[in-house]
Amino acid sequence: MGRPVDQDSDVERLLYELCVGLGFCLPPDDIRRLRESPPADVDSFTDAVFEAEGMGDMSHTDLRRQVRDVVDRHMSRWTATAVQATGEESDERRTSS
Question: Which branch of life, at top level (predicted)?
Fold first, then answer.
């Protein structure tokens, strides 16, 4: 069986990468909020990062693309791992029946 996604830790890694790589170092309350209840899709998560940084006007298109690329890379892992875990569980059920 596959290892479950530790989404809390990956959100922290994502936010750490945004801080170190792009200078988006969010306040602890915003980090906690995003870790506990991350937005469901890449664009919403990207928007939440910009809002937390006080840059909600979305006029920073190149910077937004860079942030979105980091968010997309991390969220793609969540989806791939969840699909893999679901597929493995289905295979196990078929085998044990």
Answer: Bacteria
User: Which token pair is 43?
Assistant: 């664009």
Given CA atoms 29, 30, 34, 39 in this order, what sign does their dihedral have? Answer: positive
**What burial letters (b/e) apply to 24-40, b meaning 16+ CB within 10 Å?**
bebeeeebeebbeebee
Cα 49 to Cα 20, 31, 39: the distances in Å are 14, 9, 10
What confidence tens digit (pLDDT) does each residue in 11-23 have? 999 999 999 999 9
Rounded distance between C-alpha atoms, residue 33 and residue 52, angstroms: 10
Question: Comparing 3-7, 41-45, 81-85, which segment has the lowest mean pLDDT?
Answer: 3-7
Distance CA 78, CA 9 (A): 11
Instruction: Report which residue type is found at 65.
Output: R
What are the residue ranges spanned by the domains of the chain? Answer: 7-90
